[in-house]
Amino acid sequence: MNKLSFSLLYLTLLLLFVKCTPSSSPDADQVKIEVNANDIIERLKYHDLDPFKDNIVESQFFEITGLKDEVIEGENGTVIIIPKGAFRNSKGGLVEDNIKIELAEAYSIQDMIQSNLTTTIKDKLAANGGIFYINATANGENLYIDKNNPIYVEMPKDEESKANVLKFEGVRSPDGEMHWIDKGPIEQFLMAVDINTLDFYPKGFEQAVESGMPFRGYTVADKKLKDSLFFSLKYDLSLAPMPGGGTWPPPTSDHGDSASVSYHGDNGGEHSSCNTVTPQSIAAIQHPKFEHSLLATREFEERLKVIYRSCDQELLDLYINNLDKNLWEIDQLAAQKVGQESSTYEGFIAFAEEKLTKVKNGAKYAEVLKNFYQKRLIKINQATQDAHQAYLTSLQKKEEKAQAKREEYIELLEERQKYRFSKFGFELDKMGWVMLATELEKLEKFTLEVKVPKAVELDRAHVYTFDPSINSLFALVANNGDKATFGSAYLTDWALIVEKGAYLNIIGVGYKGDEVYFAKTGATQKKVMQPELMLQKITKKELKKQLAKFDKVSARFNKLRVDLEYQRAFYVEQLRLRKLERETNFIYNLYQLVFSCCEDKELKEKGELLFKKNCSACHNPDMDADMTGPALAGVEARWLNYPNDLYRYIRNSQELVAEGQPRAVALFNEWDKSVMTSFPQLSDMDIKAILAYIRSK
After folding, report:
1. N or C: which terminus of the chain has fewer CB atoms within 10 Å of its end residue's CB?
2. Predicted local distance difference test score (pLDDT) of residue 260
3. How far apart, in whole angstroms, are the C-alpha atoms of residue 412 and residue 444?
4. Which residues of 24-61 are buried (b: 16+ CB within 10 A; e: fewer)?
C-alpha cells in the first residue's frame, strides 16, 4: 500500500460480546457488524514515520468485482459480505471495475500489542477485543461505501460472553498511537442475502442428485436442476413414482433384457397423515419478495435444517407467519410447539438464547408477505399437480404409440406365417392345436441354431432365414441367456416349416452405434443345423444392396428391410424404457429421501434396532462421516445404476466382488480390500427398514 495514500479505515475494538448466530465457519461463532459509511473519514493504516510499522499486522488482499455479491474471508475468520454495487468512487459513481480489498486482522493480544492497537477502557486493558482494518481501491483510487447499500462484517467472538457489543473507530497518529472513538452499541440486525444462495434442501438431497447424474441431458447437477427436481416432488400417492410393473417386448418368447416402469394410479390424492415440510412451501418462499425478510438469512437456513428434522410443516409456517417478530421470539414459539419431549426442542432453545432480532426494515411488509406466500403456495401446488399429470399423459401417449407398433408387427408376423403354410397347401385361419397330416408329408422336424459370436459385442443383432423356393422370411431371436445363439422364435410366428433337403439362406444384421454389420451363409435342411455367421462391418449403402437381393421378389411382410425397420423401432422404445426406468428409480430415491418423515414409524424404529445390532460397529450412526466403513448417507443414490444389487451387496458383498459387479469392486478397492461382514439372515423387509432409518437421519 502507498504510505501516502488515504484509505477507508474501520479499526473496530470489540470489548464485550453477545451470543450470536454461528458463522459459516465450523470453528467459530460470529458477531455481525454493519459497516456504515456515514461521514467517512479518510485515514491511513499507518504513517510513514510510525515506529510500529514493521510490526503491524500484515494485510491480505482480495480481488472482487462490483457486478455481483461477494463474500471474502480473512485468515483469522473475519467474513466480509459485500453486496453488488456497494462501492462508490469519489464522484459518487457506482464502481463496477475490478476492486482490490485490503484486510488486516488483529484478534490475539500479541498482535494487538505488537501493532500498538491496544487501549484501556476504565483503566482496564481490553484484552478480549477483535480489531480489523479494511480498505477498497479501484484503478488506484480509494473507494467509499454506499450508505444505502452497506457491506457487512462477521467477526469471531467469545462464545462465553453475553454482554452488549460496543464499536470503536480508530485513528492512528503519526507517532503510532491509536485514538479510539466510541461509536456506542452495535445495532445487531440480521443480514439478508440473495435467497437463491441459501441451502434450503433437506439433508442429503444435493448429494443424491449429484450421484444420479447424468440425468435428462445434465452431466452436472446445477442449482436449476436441483430446484426443479426438489420442487416437483409432492407427497401424493397418486403421483409417487414406483419402479417396476408391466412388460416390454416386441411379442416374443425370449427377447433378451427388457425394461419397464409404472406409476401409482389414483389412490385418493393427498396422504393426509403426513405433516412433513413440503418442497412446494420452500418454492413459495424462494422468491425475490422474501429477500428482505428473515427467511433470506443464513440464520434461518440453520433453523430450516432443524425444522426438516422435526417433520412438521407447521413449524415452517410459524416462521413464515411471524416475520414481524424478532427471530429469537419465533424460536421460543417453535420450542413451545415441539415440546420438551421432542429431539429438536434443545435446538430451538439454543437458537432462542442467541437473542437474534430481525432484518432491518424486514417486518414492514410482514402481513403482505404472509398473504403472498399463501397465494403463491396454492399456485405452486396446482402447477406441480398439472406438471405431473402432463408428464403421465405424455408417458401414456408414448406407450400407446409403442403398443400400436407392437400390434402392427404382430399382424405382419401372422401374415408371414399364413403365407408360409399356404405355400405348403395348408390354410391356417385360427390359432390353437393344429394337426398336419398328408398335405405336409414332405416335411420333418429339425433343429436350427445359428451361432453369431460377434453379437455379444453389439448393441443388437438380428438373424433371419430366407427360403428362396417360396420367398419366405423367418425371424429368429436369441436363446434365453445366450446372446450369441439364435434359435428361438416369435410367439406369433412359431413354426419354421421347410421342405426336406431344401436350401435356406441365413442372414445376420448387427448394429453398434452408427456402425452396421452383415453376414450371410446357407444351410441345407436336415435334422440338426448349426450354421455360424461371422458378422463383418459394412457401409449402410452396401447393406441396402444386400437386403435388396432378398426383398425384390417378396411381399411386404417377407421383406428384410421392413422387419429391420420394426426392430429399430422396438430398440428405440427399449432404450426409452431403460432410460425411463433409471430416471424413475432416481426420482423414487429422491422421493423417499425428501419424504422420509412419512415412512412408517414402526419401520424406521425396526431399522434403528437392526442398524445398531448389525451396522453401527463399522458405520457412523450420524451417517455423514466415515468410520471403519463408509458413511451411509445417500447410499441408495450411489447404487442408483444397480438398484437390484444393493440388497445382494448388503447380504454378501464378496459374492458381488467375485462376480465383478462394478460398484462392489470399486468399494472393495477403495477400502483397501477390507471385507464387509455378510448378513445372509437379513430379509428384504429388514434391509428396507435399515435403509428407511438411514434416510431419516
Report:
1. N
2. 33
3. 26
4. eeeebbbbbbebebeeeeebbbbeeebebeeebbebbe
